Amino acid sequence: MAALELFVEQGFTETSIRQVAERASVSDQTIYKAFGDKIGLLCEAADQYIETGGGGTEAAFLAALAAEPDPIERFRLVARGSRELWESGALELDLMLNGSEIRDPRLEELQRRSLAYKLESTRAACEVLFPDDIRRPEFSLDDIAALGTAMDSATTVTTLRALGWSMDRWEQWVIEFLTTFLDPAHEALRPSRGS
Predict the structure, then answer these.
(1) Topology of domain 1-51, per CATH?
(2) Rounded distance between C-alpha atoms, residue 177 and residue 76, angstroms
(3) Which ranges in the chain are annotated with CATH 1.10.10.60?
(4) What is the C-alpha separation between 57 and 75, in angstroms, rounded?
(5) Count of Cβ atoms closer than 10 Å to residue 25 Cβ
(6) 143: DSSP letter
(7) What is the pTM for the complete model shown?
(8) What is the pLDDT of residues 61-73, one digit of tens each?
């Protein structure tokens, strides 16, 4: 969607309805009639993203995870996918939604739906990453999903980057974080005989 692209590229405040209309090849009046204002436009763009499962990428990602037999490799796929998502502009969008000084009930409702979507998506990934036979028994999938949602947030990523972490370091940390939920008795954590 043209609006979402511009919001990520330029920021919400810096993007005008006129720019969105030009990118979408429609008139300003069409945008105002359809969405009311910029917040209405942002809400609709984010809702479309949520309703389509991340633009349709979520189902493909879960299938790729499920096809990988090695748990540690699955963690690498998650860390790489998350990094690519943050580097593609999701960080800016998440900060727009959750760090905004704009007080509007529509935006507050969108923040609630966005968090619920993140938690649901993370839980779906956890079901693939942590089947009962490899998960530490003291952690439920809901526990891991909640911790994963908090870990993979714009606040965490921007804080670590401000503290000097590179995205390479962050990606490695995600893998190590996920490994803590594996049952220590699982074969994926045992050294190979060739080591």
Answers:
(1) Arc Repressor Mutant, subunit A (1.10.10)
(2) 11
(3) 1-51
(4) 18
(5) 8
(6) H
(7) 0.78
(8) 899 999 999 999 9
